[in-house]
Amino acid sequence: MGMKKKVLIVGSDSAIGTEIVNHFKDKYDLIGLSRKKINNSITNHVFDLDKTDISGLPDISADICIVFSSITDIDVCEKFPKKAFKTNVEGTKKIFDALKINKIKRLIYFSTGTVVSGYDTPMNENMTPSPPNVYSVTKHLAEKEIKNYSEFFDSIVIRPFFVYGPNTRHNRLIYNLITNIAKKNTINLNIDAKPKINPIYIDDVIQIIQLLVENKNNISFDCINIAGNEVVSIKELAEKISKILKTSIIFKESENNSKNIIADITKLKEKYNYKFQFKLDEGLERMIFAMQNKNLI
Length: 297
Prior knowledge:
- This protein is an alpha/beta fold.
- The chain has nine helices and eleven strands.
- Helices cover about 35% and strands about 15% of the residues.
């Protein structure tokens, strides 16, 4: 039996980082890097990217690095743009510099689908970036930095669209829809129930990341949208949730307009040959069941 791949997870305390640790800990030799001390079964180092030079980094030699760490709260980024830039761009660049020094083989960087926005049609990876807020701008700038390191290690940028699951942050769209429908709150709809979206269940995200960890091709640099295989309007999504909850739903139509936020996932399906594991209905059922067990609804 060969040696396990050594995988560094930067942001091991983040929502998706925590899920990755739980799923990868038996498959790989994991090292975590986080802002705060966490209790799990892997070696985890505490490191503040904002305050420390890379010379203060612990040993992070690994085969592959997955970067989740950033300030992801859009409102916080809008209120404190300098802090967002310092963490999401300058702090992340410190990690890239450390990976170069440690001769890592591959970087997988978790960006955001909203690096591209404003299109009503499905958005592919080659469309001109048009980040709509400070958070998305910082992610776009970090993506641009990555290209400067492609001669030192393979770099894969992941642009996720509407990830959902049992441990989703409480300010996310699907979490909010579930809680509001469970409370019988009115669901406000934009014109034509937009945006249409194609959300992706967390377990599919994990499988995609594992696919990229195991990919043996020389990639140099690539950018991949990850989103679900089913497109729904907000109204259709709410109706699916209310059916699972077995409750009625009240809609209120507004005059607000919105563009769709649909990811083109052709590259994910064709170049990387990904086969989706979870249908939208099944993912929603799992998430709602978990929330009920935690008395969140």
